[in-house]
Amino acid sequence: MIAVGRDLDHDGDAMARLAERLGLPFADLLDPNEVALVLEYRDGRLSVSDRRDRRARPVSVGIDRVLQRYASLPAPRRGALGRAIGKRTRTVVDATAGWGADLGLLVAMGLRVTAVERSVVVAALLADGLNRLRHSTNVRGRFRMPRLMVADAIGYLADSVDAPDCVYLDPMFPPKRKRSALAKRPLRVLRELVGDDDDRRRLFASALTAAGKRVVVKRPDDAPPLEHGADESYAGKLVRYDVYFTGRERI
After folding, report:
1. Taking Cα atoms as reference points, which of 223, 106, 59 lies closest to residue 114?
2. Are strands 239-245 and 214-220 parallel, antiparallel or unpaired?
3. Total domains present in the chain
């Protein structure tokens, strides 16, 4: 179970409004043994803490930290993700925003990005990360603030009026079978919050219909493609990006 923690550094009413908006109880009103994840502020960041492992660091969205890696913005599109996105792409829908790591890379490239997240808890963390990016004095250069939509991406793409150049998909990777190969804790926490993306193929079909030029799908390097027939693939470290052109990209 996930609950909201009370925070002495933040206004109690604000935390109560957050709990009400997300439909979550307060952790201190529950049996501690029933609470696995706690949403609370740590070092000025809205974070998720895992009470099952006190040594684990809280998980928060660090889009501002992603952009701080670059000496200047917009960043060149030289890496595997940049090449998969394509030089002619200007607008992107990140349909599986998650913790926002790839969202930060897309923003750093100077793209106009709409981030879609269906989990209200993850979306709250993303909103906090974007708010910090908006007020960051350490990110220098030109970039566009992304737009965050709290919605199911399948329905959002179906209802979208303006076709984005690219739809980017990073569906939940298949769970690791061996304990030695377990995903890192942030991904395990994300899986607890959003599930296994069992509708990933429906999402791909919706993305292919909505995208103006291409759909880019991130996959583990040892996993089969989400769908066969990729037009291009670009290998990164431990992952690859499969690119599917729409009819309009081929013109």
Report:
1. 106
2. antiparallel
3. 2
pTM: 0.90
Pick from 70, 46, 72, 56: which is nearest to 189 by CA? 56
pLDDT tens digit string along 167-225? 999 987 666 554 443 457 788 888 888 877 788 899 999 999 999 999 999 999 888 99
Other CB atoms within 10 Å distance of the CB of residue 80: 16
Range of the domain at 154: 63-250
Residue 124's region, left for phi above 0, alpha for psi from -120 to 50, else beta, is alpha
67 within domain boundaries: yes
> Contact 1/35 with Cβ under 8 angstroms?
yes
Buried b (16+ CB within 10 A) or exposed e, 152-191: bbbebbeebeebbbbbbbbbbbeeeeeeeeebeebbebbe
Beta strands in 62-204 (DSSP E): 91-94, 112-117, 147-150, 166-169
- Directed axis angle between helix 120-134 and helix 12-22, to 10°? 130
> Letter for the amino acid at 150?
V
**Is 56 part of a structural domain of the chain?**
no
